Amino acid sequence: MSCRGLTRRQLVAGLGLLPCLALAGRRLARGEARVLVIGGGFAGAAAARLLKQVDPGLHVSLIEPRALIHTCPRSNHVITGLAQLDEIAWGFDELREMGVSHIRQAALDVDTPGRRVQLEDGHWLAYDWLILAPGIDFRFDAIDGYDAATAERVPHAWKAGPQSLLLRQQLKAMAPGGTLILSVPDNPYRCPPGPYERASLIAHYLSRHNPRAKLLILDAKASFSKQALFRQGWERLYPGMIEWLGHADDGRVVRLDAVRGELECEFGSRHRGEVINLIPPQRAGDIARRAGLTDASGWVPVEADGFRACLASRVMVIGDACLAAPMPKSAHSAHSQARRAVSALLAELGSDALGTTPLDNVCYSQLSPDSAISIAARYESVAGQLQEQTGSLRLSSLAAPEAEREREAAQALAWYQALGRATWGNPA
């Protein structure tokens, strides 16, 4: 993403950028810099941790109301009974021990001209630099009949926690031979291969507990991440159980009738299911919009080099909330962006302790508990635009033997544990 397409009026009007530019010539001493981080997920917690690791003298506060984070990676295992919720829980004890101040409140607003954040108790906290990592929120207005209240009966389970358990309960209660419908939104959304891993693990559950059941995927897209690998796995492991309808087959859901358990698609087709897992379209977390940082897409445009927000000074936006294509919205991408943003922030404070950090992504997807596929790539900024480095893409082979799929399943768990520890420390 580049900020070049934004007009001067967009950059200045209502955003208080000019007063901040007047202060740009004064370099803060690192010991007096106050850094606020909003959001305690893979991006925010990693940024707070790394700042304190590299420069213990920095004043770093993490604004995150939750005591525990339940990760979206491995949450599909919880839904299908392969893991318990506490196995994907991570806390903030180690960050506090490092000197990060954990403020257990929600951030209500950001005053970017005044460089301050309002907490839910009404108090304002001043900052010299803000790292915003609010994750996603849902565009409930995109599907008729679906809102936050209805999601308590028709789960999305795209934020791990109670929704994961709700979908697990509904899956277990399915009538023999019933149909489960998984609705997938158009890009961009959190974790592009995630719905198809979910379909794989649900099919694994059904093949053992409800073998006559069907799984229908209604997809707003014409194609999806790792498509050939997923479909090969489905044909081998769950023949005849999974049906995928893409956009050309009228797979884009536009309306939900929660009473009838029915989904209506763009061109009029209707589908009924005993269980509906409706993943709605998404946008950046609400605080990004209230801060005036989002564009018409609902996401936050950022500079490719350091993830500085295009629409405010001294604000960096990382993780799922930012526009960083071709980097996917993934846990590994979020952690990688945190390193790049911290490197850029330290450089602003006169330190090259991290130097230029790489931008990369690694993503594992389970086909079954003992079989996985993966994709990996590295990214670089060229003329202000992010692009995939030539020759960096690594994708599992369609011709790989099952032993290789089993090795990747073991690697997936090792990757998850390593990334979690690098973000929060030891599991909760």
UniProtKB/TrEMBL annotation:
Keywords: FAD, Flavoprotein. It comes from the Bacteria. It holds the Pfam family FCSD_central. Residues 34-146 form the FAD/NAD(P)-binding domain. Residues 165-280 form the Sulfide dehydrogenase [flavocytochrome c] flavoprotein chain central domain. Gene3D superfamilies: FAD/NAD(P)-binding domain, Flavocytochrome c sulphide dehydrogenase, flavin-binding domain. InterPro entries: FAD/NAD-bd_sf (IPR036188), FAD/NAD-binding_dom (IPR023753), FAD/NAD-linked_Rdtase_dimer_sf (IPR016156), FCSD_central (IPR049386), FlavoCytC_S_DH_flav-bd (IPR015323), FlavoCytC_S_DH_flav-bd_sf (IPR037092), SQRD (IPR052541). Coiled coil: none annotated. Residues 359-421 form the Flavocytochrome c sulphide dehydrogenase flavin-binding domain. PANTHER family: FAD-DEPENDENT PYRIDINE NUCLEOTIDE-DISULPHIDE OXIDOREDUCTASE (PTHR43755:SF1), PTHR43755. This is FCSD flavin-binding domain-containing protein. It comes from Stutzerimonas tarimensis.
